[in-house]
Write a structure and sequence with these properties.
Shape: globular
Strand order of the largest sheet: 10-9-8-13-11-12
Largest sheet: 6 strands, mixed
Helix content: 40-55%
Number of helices: 12
Strand content: 15-25%
Distance between the termini: 24 Å
Structural class: alpha/beta
Low-confidence stretches: none
Mean pLDDT: 90
Length: about 290
């Protein structure tokens, strides 16, 4: 049986250290400031990105890599002996990465007939998408076949969840994820919503006035989610402000201690372009 290579784009929030730990290959996005472009994670760490983001007054954008980048990634792993590949991308609603990797997979298979490639659109992003990726990596390590991992991964998509509070809503508006009129109004009256990302869209979960109340509501949501599983994975992600992660970690002290796996992560640059500096994100998943 062929060993399966798991591939994820950098929007799935698997950083390079975790990618090495779980034997996951990363296909990175491109990050562009007004005068410079970088390869996500490889040329620009999260810390470096948010420092530059705070100083930038111009537009910051993201783009998918070329099909050639996808082909090179497949080829590099092919040379290492892999013939079966499972690729995870953030939702098609958020980027063209899934389409690019689909085209790259078709091109690669056309000249490598001994290969099998399956793709999964997570319909989500960042720390929500990290769950099916890491679970797939554990299945691959256990020796499951490509078809087995693919079916299990599709089933795991239903467990994805992500809740968060943004420092301000202008970054989401700048990234096209929220109408600018709502961002202006919210900031004017100190309206701090708790947001949820689901099925490729941002949803308002709770309306609050002031950040303190928003964090309190977020804490309640995550506590309830932890109670819904006998064993769970708890993930807290910070966008350039790890002090907020520490505060949330303290608020969820019992849940952190009770977690089968606790992950504390920095939001990857490609996601930070849209969340802005200071966003706090949380997710809870079942642990097998």
């Amino acid at each position: 049986m062929n060993k399966v290579k798991i591939i994820a784009d950098s929007g799935c929030n698997v950083d390079l250290a975790m990618a090495k730990q779980y034997n996951v290959s990363i296909i990175p996005f491109n990050i562009s400031f007004e005068d410079e472009s970088y390869i996500d994670l490889y040329e620009l760490t999260s810390v470096e990105f948010f420092e530059k983001f705070r100083q930038s007054e111009g537009r910051v954008s993201t783009s998918v890599p070329s099909i050639g980048s996808g082909l090179r990634l497949f080829e590099d792993n092919y040379k290492e002996g892999y013939r079966d590949f499972l690729v995870f991308t953030i939702g098609k609603e958020f980027s063209g990465m899934h389409q690019m990797m689909t085209l790259a997979a078709r091109d690669f298979i056309s000249s490598h007939h001994d290969c099998n490639i399956k793709l999964i659109d997570t319909r989500n992003l960042t720390i929500a998408a990290i769950y099916p990726v890491l679970m797939a990596a554990t299945y691959a390590e256990a020796g499951d076949s490509l078809d087995e991992i693919y079916e299990k991964s599709l089933a795991n998509l239903k467990y994805q969840n992500i809740y968060g509070v943004a420092k301000d809503l202008f970054a989401l508006a700048r990234g096209g994820r929220l109408p600018k009129s709502i961002a202006r109004f919210a900031n004017l009256i100190s309206f701090s919503p708790v947001l949820k990302i689901e099925e490729g869209a941002f949803h308002l979960v709770k309306k609050t006035t002031g950040k303190k109340k928003a964090y309190q509501e977020l804490t309640k949501i995550i506590k309830d989610l932890c109670k819904s599983y006998d064993r769970y994975i708890l993930v807290i992600g910070g966008a350039g402000d790890l002090d907020k992660v520490d505060i949330m970690k303290e608020a969820l002290k019992d849940e952190v201690e009770g977690a089968g796996l606790y992950l504390e992560l920095e939001i990857t640059p490609v996601i930070g372009v849209h969340t802005g500096d200071g966003a706090l994100l949380c997710s809870v998943f079942p642990l097998e």
